[in-house]
Amino acid sequence: MNAKQLAAEAAVALIKDGMKVGLGTGSTAYFAIQKIGQRVKDEGLKVTCIATSVQSEELATSLNIPMAGFEELSYLDITIDGADEADHSLQLIKGGGGALLREKIIAYMTGHYVIIADDSKYVETLGKFFLPVEVIPFGWQRTFDHLSRLGCTPHLREKQGAAYITDNGNYILDCDFKKITDPGQLQTELNLIPGVVECGLFVDRAQTLIIAAADGQLTTYHKEVKN
Ligand SMILES: O=C[C@H](O)[C@H](O)[C@H](O)COP(=O)(O)O
User: Fold this and answer.
1) pLDDT value at 226 more than 80
2) What kind of fold does domain 3-122+203-222 have according to CATH?
3) Where are the transmembrane segments (predicted)?
4) By CB neighbour count within 10 A (0-12 exposed, 13-18 middle, 19+ buried), where does 72 fall?
5) What's the pTM?
6) Which of 79, 97, 106, 174 is the most buried (most CB within 10 A)?
7) Atom of ligand 1 nearest to the CA of 121
8) Per the annotation, where are the binding residues for substrate?
9) Which pLDDT tens digit goes with each residue over 145-155?
10) Residue with CA closest to ligand 1 atom 12
11) Ligand 1 first shell, C-beta below 6 A
12) Domain spans, the chain
């Protein structure tokens, strides 16, 4: 079993009958959704889920995982999601797969927010991974200018030669800050820029971080966070 799958399955073991569950996005969350589907099928696990992306919604539906909308769910017991970077105080960079906005909305309605990753994602200081910032397409070049003034080099994310479009119809600027020493302050500054919809910093959100190594070793970190 690879490290991502190992971390994912350890997290899915936390899900109990009757829980409302948030489904993350990406190659690590994929294994969690697969395992939830397996538990629904084999054990008759009773859950109601909401997904952080169209991609995860489609995967969950194909596995017959019961899904619900925001009109039905206002609170989730647990969400299991991946991350692009996580530091020792469980601050995160997310959005490598473009799902940061829906992921953050769901993180903010979750009681127990669990992050799963292989050990390459566990870093001393955030920022080596370019920080994804979701911006509206209107005037994005000027939003780009404002981001640059915060000391980063932004790059418009592209897919097949055109601007990458998120599930919400927006663009992503991947920002090279090199080192992010104060994620909370940076999040505040980013979200004050007109045109920025949301940034991929998840500050004081994760309560549990499950890191798996290729040799099968699992390490779980916990933090007190009032969600
Ligand atoms: O937008 C995508 C999400 O934030 C992912 O959870 C993150 O990019 C990690 O993805 P992966 O597990 O594929 O490395």
Assistant:
1) no
2) Rossmann fold (3.40.50)
3) none
4) exposed
5) 0.97
6) 79
7) 14
8) 25-28, 81-84, 94-97, 121
9) 999 999 999 99
10) 28
11) 24-29, 81-84, 94-100, 103
12) 3-122+203-222, 131-197
